[in-house]
Write a sequence for this structure.
């Protein structure tokens, strides 16, 4: 019992000491790859995030199929989804890799899955069988689907607040400022840029925040040769997209540095893996 009480006292002392030093105990973020589905130039709204498994990009069937003008029916007893569009009828079963296309049996190389009550299916298979062209943009994790003669219903359109260009610029600055550091640091750096974009003290676009010289050069690496042509790493794209999709681990912090600031005009918010973040 004595040792148990001593351990608790030491833990409490550590937490108080850490906060006294400006450090806050925080939970490390988990990596999330946000995959975008785009149909005829429209981003598609979904209530279950697409994901990559077994080398395939899975998407929720109903949202993508109905955005393409198809009718989707679900048979709970058989665990079967039926998709009808034009002259095509496709039937698939949860947990199976057998799919019936106009009555003919086809096999895909991975099973149909159910996640959070949604049928998840490899996007390329369903899109091509509905007469679409499909491309995968590996840089920004996007599925690009094109089909002539359809208009995506407004209810399926996701009004994304950033462009792929915004994503790439943000990933570039993350790459040069924290590319070799942890996901937590990369995410925090991305959020500093986004916080500045929303602050009246700084420009109101990601590009202009990065190249802002109003007070001084804000991000020196952005002004070095080659920055504007840089292809950011997948890790930095992932971090930037997480931030753009609303994952924030540093609140409203507007500044960061790898050594403490001497100025008293800023307040230390958090230290993450040796990087100092300030309000």
């Amino acid at each position: 019992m004595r040792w148990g009480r001593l351990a608790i006292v030491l833990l409490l002392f550590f937490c108080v000491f850490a906060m006294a030093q400006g450090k806050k105990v925080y939970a490390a973020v988990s990596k999330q790859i946000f995959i975008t589905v785009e149909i005829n130039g429209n981003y598609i709204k979904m209530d279950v995030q697409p994901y990559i498994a077994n080398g395939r990009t899975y998407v929720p069937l109903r949202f993508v199929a109905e955005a393409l003008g198809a009718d989707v029916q679900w048979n709970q007893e058989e665990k079967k989804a039926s998709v009808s569009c034009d002259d095509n009828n496709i039937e698939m079963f949860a947990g199976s890799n057998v799919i019936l296309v106009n009555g003919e049996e086809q096999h895909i190389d991975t099973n149909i899955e159910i996640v959070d009550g949604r049928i998840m299916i490899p996007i390329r298979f369903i899109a091509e069988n509905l007469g679409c062209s499909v491309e995968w943009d590996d840089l920004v994790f996007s599925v690009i689907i094109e089909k002539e003669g359809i208009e995506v219903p407004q209810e399926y359109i996701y009004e994304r607040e950033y462009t792929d260009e915004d994503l790439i610029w943000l990933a570039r600055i993350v790459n040069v400022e924290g590319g070799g550091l942890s996901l937590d640091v990369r995410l925090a750096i991305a959020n500093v840029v986004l916080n500045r974009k929303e602050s009246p003290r700084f420009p109101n676009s990601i590009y202009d925040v990065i190249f802002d010289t109003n007070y001084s050069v804000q991000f020196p690496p952005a002004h070095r040769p080659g920055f504007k042509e840089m292809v950011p790493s997948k890790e930095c794209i992932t971090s930037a997209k997480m931030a753009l999709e609303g994952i924030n681990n540093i609140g409203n912090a507007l500044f960061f540095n790898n050594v403490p600031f001497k100025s008293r005009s800023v307040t230390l918010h958090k230290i993450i893996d040796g990087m100092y973040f300030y309000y």
